[in-house]
Amino acid sequence: MPFPALSHVLAIFLISLSSISIDLQGVYAQRPATNLYLFDIHLATDEMPLTHPRLLTAFNLHGYNNQPNFFRPDEIWFTSDYQDTTQTDIWSLQLTTNTRRRVTRTRASEYSPTPIPGRPGFSTVVVETDGEDTQRLWKYPMVKGGQPLPLFPEITGVGYHCWLSGDSAALFIVGEPHSLHMAHASKDESTFMASRIGRCLLRDEAGRLLFLQKVTDTDWYIKRYDPAYDRTEILIKSRPGSEDFCLLPDGSLLMAQGAVIYRYDPGKDITWRTFADLSVYGLLNITRIVNHEDRQLAIVNQPIAP
Known about the structure:
Layout: H1 6-14, E1 35-41, E2 50-55, E3 65-72, E4 75-80, E5 89-94, E6 99-102, E7 109-115, E8 122-127, E9 135-140, E10 149-150, E11 158-163, E12 168-173, E13 179-184, E14 187-195, E15 197-203, E16 209-214, E17 220-226, E18 231-237, E19 245-247, E20 253-257, E21 260-264, E22 273-277, E23 286-292, E24 296-301
Antiparallel strand pairs: 1-2, 1-24, 3-4, 4-5, 5-6, 7-8, 8-9, 9-10, 11-12, 12-13, 13-14, 15-16, 16-17, 17-18, 19-20, 20-21, 21-22, 23-24
């Protein structure tokens, strides 16, 4: 089934507004209606840096479609409740053939599919069916027949994660407040790094971790941690109320606030500048943003309740 151009579904989308709920594993009493969109990136022009808009999840327009991740240049994996609204599974979208595939089919709920660097399989946060909704990081096989395994069996409360190498991962641990921990495959324990963090965790090409820390209720900063020197530095204050961002190959950051995507280039800018306004497409509440290099940008939009 082809992915429709955004204009074909915009009228339907604008009347499909649903109530908002918190997007965090561990508190999914009601999953919000969210949809995935794809744009081509053109950094050479400031007039139309994002073109060729496509709605990727028209097949589940009123459902939960979230946490996209590029597994290949032409393939996005994401979390969805399509075909089973009682829980979530991992799905993949093949962008060149316009086909979708259900990757997992389990009684548990899986979130945040992520490739593991240099290792077969992929990692996913699993809300287990143990009666306590225990959340752990698991490794799943890429092909049928393999056995899923918990990666850090003794570490629970995992909400989000990012691999810094095939052996070490940064973990968002759910709590009051939420905290950042580092875990290593060689030992089943984690090291506390920071508190009051946001859910977005990214690795740059140098192996450093980018994360957001909410120093106060209003002062949020994107920081960079270098494990080689055990040193953390502030990169930029975030857009007010925004915590998700992505990193372009030139080192600049993209961050969304409402309908607007902003860009910050540390080599040129002293603060955020407008990159693209997606309100023309009816996308007024961009909650997630992820890129494949400087070629494509996938976003999640959560409709605002009237």
